[in-house]
C-alpha cells in the first residue's frame, strides 16, 4: 500500500471517519473509499453510519445533502470548490411562479441542486428513482428541476402526468452527440449502449439501456453481452472493469469528464482529514425545509422495497 493510503487509513481511525466516494471521482480516490456509489446510494448510506466524520469525495450538493440528513455529524469535502454546474440552473422565482400557475403542482428536485432550490421543493429524486417517484405522486402537474434532459426522460416514461422539465443540463452529458454514439456503434457493432439519463433525448433513442451510474454498472455485470459502449462520465470505468475483468467497455469519443469530480484527489482527501478543512455548513434557516424533500425521497425508496 502506498504511503498516502496508509496516512489516510491512520487518519480515518484517529478521527472516527468514513469516506464516501461517487463513481465519477478519480479511481485512486474510489479505491480508498469505504463506500462507493451513485447519488442515491450515497445519500442513503450516509444516514446509517456510526462514524462521527463523513468525508464526501464528491461535489458540493452531495456533501450538503449528507449534512442536511445528518446534522449532528461533521461532513468534510476534500475540494469544497468542486461544484456541479447544473445545481443552480433553476430559480426560486420561477418555482413560485409555477406554483401560482398550477394549483396542484409538485416541485420535483433532482438531488443535483443547491440547498436553496431543495428548500422550495416537495420531493428530491436521483436518476435512480426519478421515474418511480414521479409516477407515484398524487399530483397531475409536476415541475421537474433543474435537469431538462432527465425531466424529458421522466416525462416520456410517465405520460399520464404533465411533467414540465426545467432548463438546466449537465454539460458532461449534454455535449454527447448522435454522431459520436453512431461512430462508437460502428466501431463496436456487438456492443450494447448503456446511457445515463442526463443525456439528450436523441442520445437516449440510440441506447439499449438507460439508467443511473449504479444501474449501468449492474446492467453490464448481469448482462450476457461481452461488450458495452458507456455513455456517462468516465469514472464509472473503474468499477465496471473491477467487476467485469473479462468484458470490454468503450467510451464515446475519448470519454466524458466532469472536471469538478476529477478535482478531488487523494492528497485533498488526506488533507481535509488532517487539517479539518472543507467542513460543510448549511444555512440553519434552510436545513429543515431541505430535509423534508430529501427524507421523502428516502422514504419512497423504502416503500418501493
Ligand atoms: P447518479 O450518481 O445518480 O447516477 O448521477 C450522476 C451524476 O451526475 C452525479 O453528479
Ligand atoms: Fe454535475 Fe454533470 Fe459533474 Fe454530475 S457529471 S457532478 S451532473 S456537472
Task: Describe the structure in brief.
The protein is of the alpha/beta class.
Bound chemical compounds: 1,3-dihydroxyacetonephosphate, iron/sulfur cluster
Strand order, biggest sheet? 2-1-3-4
Give the overall pLDDT as a whole number.
96
SSE ordering: HEHEHEHEHEHEHEHEHHEHEHEHEHHH
| Number of distinct helices | 16
User: Could you give the distance between the termini?
Assistant: 39 Å
Q: Considering DSSP H and I runs of 4 or more, what fraction of the residues is helical?
A: 40-55%
What's the story with the biggest beta sheet? 4 strands, parallel
Oligomer: single chain
Strand proportion: 15-25%
Protein described:
The protein is of the alpha/beta class. It has 16 helices and 12 strands. It binds 1,3-dihydroxyacetonephosphate and iron/sulfur cluster. 1,3-dihydroxyacetonephosphate binds at residues 38-40, 84, 112, 126-128, 170, 198, 212-213.
Helix and strand topology:
Elements: H1 3-15, E1 17-22, H2 27-31, E2 35-37, H3 39-46, E3 53-57, H4 60-69, E4 74-76, H5 92-101, E5 106-110, H6 115-118, E6 123-125, H7 130-135, E7 141-145, H8 148-157, E8 162-165, H9 171-174, H10 178-187, E9 192-195, H11 201-204, E10 209-210, H12 213-222, E11 227-231, H13 236-243, E12 248-251, H14 259-262, H15 266-275, H16 284-304
The chain binds 1,3-dihydroxyacetonephosphate and iron/sulfur cluster.
Amino acid at each position: 500500500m502506498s504511503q498516502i493510503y496508509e496516512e489516510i487509513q491512520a487518519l480515518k481511525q484517529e478521527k472516527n471517519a468514513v469516506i464516501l466516494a461517487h463513481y465519477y471521482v478519480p479511481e485512486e480516490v474510489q479505491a480508498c473509499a469505504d463506500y462507493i456509489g451513485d447519488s442515491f446510494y450515497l445519500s442513503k448510506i450516509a444516514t446509517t453510519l456510526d462514524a462521527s466524520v463523513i468525508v464526501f469525495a464528491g461535489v458540493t450538493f452531495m456533501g450538503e445533502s449528507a449534512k442536511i440528513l445528518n446534522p449532528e455529524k461533521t461532513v468534510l469535502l476534500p475540494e469544497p470548490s468542486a461544484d456541479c454546474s447544473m445545481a443552480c440552473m433553476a430559480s426560486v422565482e420561477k418555482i413560485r411562479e409555477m406554483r401560482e400557475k398550477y394549483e396542484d403542482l409538485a416541485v420535483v428536485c433532482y438531488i443535483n441542486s443547491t440547498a436553496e432550490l431543495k428548500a422550495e421543493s416537495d420531493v428530491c429524486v436521483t436518476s435512480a428513482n426519478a421515474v418511480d417517484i414521479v409516477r407515484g405522486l398524487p399530483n397531475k402537474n409536476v415541475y421537474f428541476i433543474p435537469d431538462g434532459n432527465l425531466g424529458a426522460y421522466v416525462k416520456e416514461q410517465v405520460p399520464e402526468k404533465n411533467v414540465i422539465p426545467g432548463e438546466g443540463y449537465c454539460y458532461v452529458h449534454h455535449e454527447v452527440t448522435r454522431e459520436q454514439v453512431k461512430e462508437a456503434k460502428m466501431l463496436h457493432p456487438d456492443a450494447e449502449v448503456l446511457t445515463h439519463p442526463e443525456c439528450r433525448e436523441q442520445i437516449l433513442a440510440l441506447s439499449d439501456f438507460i439508467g443511473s451510474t449504479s444501474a449501468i454498472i449492474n446492467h453490464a455485470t448481469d448482462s450476457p453481452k461481452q461488450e458495452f459502449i458507456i455513455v456517462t462520465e468516465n469514472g464509472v470505468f473503474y468499477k465496471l472493469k473491477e467487476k467485469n475483468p473479462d468484458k470490454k467497455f468503450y467510451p464515446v469519443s475519448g470519454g466524458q469528464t466532469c472536471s469538478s469530480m476529477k478535482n478531488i484527489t487523494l492528497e485533498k482527501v488526506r488533507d481535509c482529514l488532517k487539517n479539518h478543512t472543507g467542513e460543510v455548513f448549511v444555512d440553519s434557516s434552510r436545513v429543515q425545509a431541505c430535509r423534508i424533500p430529501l427524507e421523502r425521497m428516502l422514504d419512497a425508496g423504502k416503500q418501493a422495497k
